[in-house]
TrEMBL record:
This is TetR family transcriptional regulator. Residues 20-80 form the HTH tetR-type domain. Residues 43-62 bind DNA. Transmembrane segments: none annotated.
Amino acid sequence: MAAPQPTDTERKRAPSKRALATRKRVFDAAEKVFAARGFDGATIRDIAAEAGEPVGTIHHHGGGKEALFHRTVARRATPLSEARLKALGVLKRENQVTLETLLDAFMRPIFELSDTDPGWRAYARLVAFVSADDRWREISAECFDPTAELFLAELGALLPETPRPALAEGFVFSVSAMLALLTSQGRIAALGGGAAPDKEQLDHLLRFSAAGLKARG
């Protein structure tokens, strides 16, 4: 599926502050509805109701349902990738790359972003949907694979005896656990009679994931 292209109107003039605010409201609503109901369960009318906008406004800013889903996933992919690559760059400059610090550079940014904007938790559900459904393989390739490939290369340098398929398997397991932690803390609390603070849980996840990658080698 090709990336949605800007309309002629979008190319001709910069949007006003009002238009930008409406656009943000549309995509925030799309993110919330898609995260709650999945692609198949969501409708444009649901998104319009959540945004408090006419259906025509949703189509104007997002296109059809599939294009809107694509754009909603892509919206946060760039800042997330930039935060991860910035963290990786610091590790490499300081010669501090280990399994745990590498995983930390990949995972911690989305937790930090979610501290200031709860929408990132809904976004994590969208990423989980995209990762689990082959329909969205092109979205994954566009939005997530370039950064994932860089981190996999670093994992390969740390674990040179581990075959690439095993590295990919361990990496995907780790990312799946990260998404589960972002979206399922209530379940952890229900089963465990309470949950540790986010930072402690993330530290536990990093150790868990690093141990799994070492064992897989």
